[in-house]
Design goal:
With 243 residues, the chain is mostly helical. The protein contains twelve helices and three strands. Helix 6 packs across helix 11 and helix 7 runs antiparallel to helix 9. The N and C termini lie far apart (52 Å).
C-alpha cells in the first residue's frame, strides 16, 4: 500500500535535501490547499488549484513571499509527487519584492535586550544581533562551535546548507561564557528551558534534549519588542541580523 501524498511529499522533500524549515513551509502550504479544497490532494483539479491561488492573492492578500512559497510547494507536489501536466503550474511566478528591511537603532536594540522576558532569551537576542545570525543558526549553536582562540563561530548548514565562520566579538564571547555557566548543558548553548517556574530554568535546561523552541523565541521577541515600545513596521527577530 502506497503512502498518502502528504507522507510521500515529506519523504521526497527530505530526499531532495531541503531544509527542515522549507519542508515545514511546503507541507503547510499543501495542507492548507487540501483543507480549502475539501478533498484529497490526488483529487484536486487544475481549476481548484487556480481558484485557490487567486483567492489567497486577491482576497486574503497574502504577501509575495508567502505566495511564492505556496507556488513552489504546489509545483513540487504536482510535478514530483502527484504528476500533473497542468499549464497553471508554469504560471505561478511572482516578481521579487525589493523592500528595505527594518533596522533598529543601537538605543532600540538596547531597549529590546533590556525588555527580554528572561536572561536566556536576552543572551539569545544579543548573540543574534552581535554576530548577525539567523534564528535557526543561533538556536542550534553548540559549545564546540565556539572558537574562542580565533574569535570565530562555526555555523553549520546555514542558508543553502552552507557552513561558514562568523566573527565573535569578545563581549559576546564573555556573555556566552556567563550564560553557559548558569545551565552547563554538555552540548547546547541555548537548550530548551521548559515551562513552569522560571527560577528552575537552569536545571531544566541542563538536561534538555532539544534547543529552544522556535515559537518560544518568536513569542519572547514580540513580548520584548512591545515592552520596549518599538512600533516600526516589519520588526521581527531577523531584524536584529539586519541591524
Amino acid at each position: 500500500m502506497s503512502a498518502d501524498p502528504h507522507t510521500q511529499m515529506r519523504d521526497s522533500l527530505q530526499l531532495n535535501g531541503l531544509s527542515a524549515a522549507t519542508c515545514t513551509a511546503y507541507l503547510r502550504a499543501v495542507r492548507l490547499l487540501g483543507e480549502h479544497s475539501r478533498c484529497a490532494l490526488e483529487d484536486i483539479t487544475e481549476e481548484q488549484l487556480r481558484n485557490y491561488y487567486l483567492h489567497r492573492r486577491n482576497v486574503d492578500h497574502w504577501s509575495v513571499s508567502t505566495l511564492r512559497i505556496a507556488a513552489c510547494a504546489f509545483r513540487f507536489l504536482f510535478k514530483q509527487v502527484i504528476p500533473r501536466d497542468w499549464n497553471t503550474l508554469s504560471l505561478l511566478e511572482l516578481k521579487s519584492e525589493h523592500l528595505l528591511p527594518a533596522v533598529l537603532s543601537v538605543a532600540e536594540v538596547h531597549a529590546l535586550l533590556d525588555a527580554a522576558p528572561s536572561p536566556h532569551y536576552r543572551a539569545f537576542f544579543a548573540t543574534v544581533y552581535s554576530c548577525g545570525l539567523r534564528l535557526q543558526e543561533a538556536r542550534n549553536l553548540e559549545v564546540g562551535d565556539i572558537d574562542a582562540a580565533r574569535g570565530l563561530i562555526h555555523i553549520h548548514r546555514g542558508k543553502g546548507a552552507r557552513d561558514r565562520m562568523v566573527p565573535l566579538p569578545q563581549a559576546t564571547l564573555e556573555l556566552l561564557r556567563r550564560h553557559w555557566s548558569v545551565h552547563r548543558h554538555p552540548r547546547r548553548l541555548f537548550p530548551a528551558i521548559g515551562r513552569g517556574n522560571k527560577r528552575l530554568w537552569p536545571q531544566r535546561a541542563a538536561v534538555a534534549t532539544d534547543a529552544l523552541r522556535t515559537s518560544g523565541i518568536n513569542d519572547a521577541f514580540r513580548q520584548a519588542r512591545d515592552v520596549a515600545g518599538i512600533t516600526k513596521k516589519g520588526v521581527s527577530l531577523h531584524t536584529l541580523r539586519h541591524s
